[in-house]
Hints:
This protein is mostly helical. Helix content is 52%, strand content 4%. The protein has a two-stranded antiparallel ribbon with strand order 1-2. Helix 3 (118-124) packs across helix 4 (131-146). The radius of gyration is 42 Å and the shape is elongated.
Amino acid sequence: MVDVLTWTIERRMRLTERAELLRKELAEIDVELGRLEAAEVVFGQWAEATDGGRRPSGIVEPEPEPEPEPERVVVVTPGAAGMRLVPDREEGMGVEVLTPEYRRIMEIVTAAAGPVMAKDVALALGRENTPGKVEPVRGQLRKLSGRGWLARNGSGRYLPC
């Protein structure tokens, strides 16, 4: 009989401890439920006020004050803001409208005894005779030709206009 009494007391103590833990857990759940109910109310009010988020809420956040920018000097050079490095040539226009590099290319082509190739111009500019150094010069010659500064013959040689 004593064993039954001991078992009953031990069982009651374990159940009391478990009940206390469950009460704490239930209290935490009640607090979370309260927060969720409050959030539902606030969200419902916001949804009504903004037509489900399709209209602005009317809440305006202040924008930070912009810091004053230091004054900048803007120098407009060919190639800036859409300006052409090589303008279309017009009657009476001199090479002074070209950038220094394009001016130098024009001087080399004009000083040559006859039509010049891109590799000859690249060498005269002090560049190596490699594809990586000649191709950019070839592109510059094509640009000068396309804008009326140079004439290109069929063999890829260039002459002044």
